[in-house]
Task: structure prediction
Amino acid sequence: MKAVTYTSTGPSDVLQYGERDEPHAGQGEVRVRIHVSGVNPTDWKSRSGSGAGELARAQVPNQDGAGVVDEVGDGVSGLSVGDRVWVWDAAYQRADGTAQELVVLPERQVVPLPQDASFDLGASVGIPALTAHRALTVHEGGPAELSPGALHGRTVLVAGGAGAVGHAAIQLAVWADATVIATVSSHAKAELARAAGAHHVVNYRDGDTAQAIGALAPRGVDIVVEVNPAANAELDARIAAPNASIAVYADSPGEATVAIPVRPSMGKNLRYQFVLTYTTTPASKDAAVHAVAAAIADGALPIGAEHGLPVTRFPLSETAAAHDAVEGGVVGKVLIDVA
Result:
């Protein structure tokens, strides 16, 4: 089968396209013929590593993907050959990501994909949507699992509303009936955030951002989905409602620490929650997968430029270029056509 692998960490040219032996499903496992593989920042960062270094075994990159079940192992009861599916965390602590024609995964990591949902969508929801779900459910007294109406009466601020996680956070929050404010850095990205469903969009390069958000949310913001805590810590403390949660899922290059305004945060009893989808509890991950699957079924997570998430495509043989595009900050979602 065709696959992309690397045997040492480093720049994208460590990725090699070629042939690999076909895997087979074992006990409790499912083999998926991947049609589309999704690329996230975590994929190129894992491949890059902390510097050049040899790996103990060849690694196939990419966590997310979608395709069709073509083999099931003993003990698998919820999936059958021919089922359309999406997969999550394929390459986490495993050598087999989705940049290959066939991938074998535990049944838990293979989720049915409705007939009316594209493989592109299935390959786009893993890391971004599961991260967004966790960020939206850390609020004290809030739901552990999103559903329609679960965030009714809440105001959510999504920083970086034109990114993949921001896009998913907007869509999930709207699906759960929150009022959503997104911040962006340009008028073009503002249009993307609006297309995703944000009720209000603030360009933080235009005027006083805190004042603009305060006018939209006079009692404050209940949940902040934060992509740049170092730059936004003071802003978040100003616009947060009492007892709000600030969920941090990323940092900026070169910003390893965050200076939190202590007294303003104490005065409002703010909660800072750091989020990494890989290491959430099994209960939190299961809730996220269940909610994202329900949102897909409800048609609440569409992608494409008209829905605020432009798609850039590459063939499997150009996976290195796909990684470079994500590392370079391309707006939208990068997908790889495998099948």
